[in-house]
Structure formats: C-alpha cells, structure tokens
Predict the structure.
Amino acid sequence: MRRKLVVGNWKMHGSIAANKVLLEGIIKGVHDLHEVDAVVCVPYPYLCQAQSLLLDSNVAWGAQNMCSNNDGAITGAVSPAMLVDYGCTHVIIGHSERRNLFHETDDTAAARFNAALAAGLTPIFCMGESLEERESDWTDYIVGRQLDSIIRRFGPLVLEHAVLAYEPLWAVGSDQAATPQQAQDVHDFIRRRISRCNASVASAVQVLYGGSVTPANAAQLFAMPDIDGVLVGRASLKVDDFVGICKAANVQT
Ligand code: PEP
C-alpha cells in the first residue's frame, strides 16, 4: 500500500516572518494526520529556519533544486551535501520552471537526480507536457522520454528511492488543473512503462500529480488509484489550503 505524500513547493516566495506563521500553522494543522506525509520545499535561505521550526514535527523539508557536484568553484550553486547538512529529506528535480527558465535538460536533470540519491536525498522527479504537446497527442511520448532519461541511465531500481511527479505544464500556475481522469491516465502510463522493466518497482513507486491543486479538487485527485499524492505550488503558501489538502489525503488512505 503506497502512502500518500503532499509536497509544498514554495518557489521564490517567503520571508522570515511569513514563513514562521505558515510553518507553525502547518505543524498545528497536520500534527494528528497519521496517514499522510507532508513535506515543504523552501527556498535555500530558509532551510535553516525550516529545520529549526520543523525538527520535532511530522513535517519534513527539502529544497527545490540543487547542483549535481558536491563542491567546487561553481558560483551560486548549492550542493547535495549542503542540503543534507540542513536536514533536508527531499529535493525537487527537473521542475518545468527549471527546465524552461534555466535550460535544464533531461541530461542535467538526470545528473542531479543521481547526485541526490548518492547523498541520501529523495529526488522528486518532475515530468510533464506542454499544452501544444498535449494537443498534438504527444503526452505519452514526452513523459515517456523524461522517465526513460532516468531508467535508461540508472535502471528501474533507483525508483525505489525516488518519487515521481506528473506536472503538466499547462496546469502549473494556471488555475486549470488536469481532471482527475486526465491525471490518472498519465499516472497509469507511467506505471505501465516502469512495469516493462520491473513490475514491483512500478507498483511501489509514489507518483504525485502537480498543477493547480487546491483543497477543492484534492479529494477527487486522491480518489484515483494511481495518484499517490500531490506537488502543490500556490496552495502551499496558505495554511488552510495546504492543511486542507493534507486532510483530504489523510482520509483517502
Ligand atoms: C508547482 O509549482 O509545482 C505547482 C504545481 O504549482 P501550482 O500548484 O501553483 O500550479
């Protein structure tokens, strides 16, 4: 039985004062939810704050990206070991905003994915198609290519230590979430594709959906057999919304 996982992606939002209110609200809101795991992926400067506030809570924390090198003359980069130093358990890899705004490719995302695993972090590996690609019936091709960029390089067993996230680009930040059935169809495709290499990995790996998830649509998404959780952007910045989504996940298990 796969546990439900709700991951907040704060993106480039927050301040020390606002984070304190948000994190304290989340801690209080999820403390008695035992059937769901909650993670917040915060901007690098707030990892220390997240660590000190969340240490004794049932909320884990992580980062939104990282370098694939562990150290070196790479100005502005943050290494996997640094994330581990701050108690991170998870790191988002290959988010569409990193792919589009920072020219992340399948190759660089795969290198980061591998470096995260080597550091003992759980990579949350993002995949998804653009609207144009969906309308051209290329969804399976694009998501399959992104998934294969990991499986071909490292084999299916690495997925035992990773989380996958299907995030259609047209749904991220758009107020147009995929319907539960649209998301389920792609999650099913992902699981079937992994299953060609390893059936037990395919049935165990957590596959999250991301894109305009709110407390209003969360329960219907969680009701789908292959949706094991969600990656949440905007709604992770509001206590009631994030906690509401965690509660919806908690009752579905
Ligand atoms: C995201 O950034 O991964 C995301 C899903 O954003 P939003 O929930 O705001 O669509």
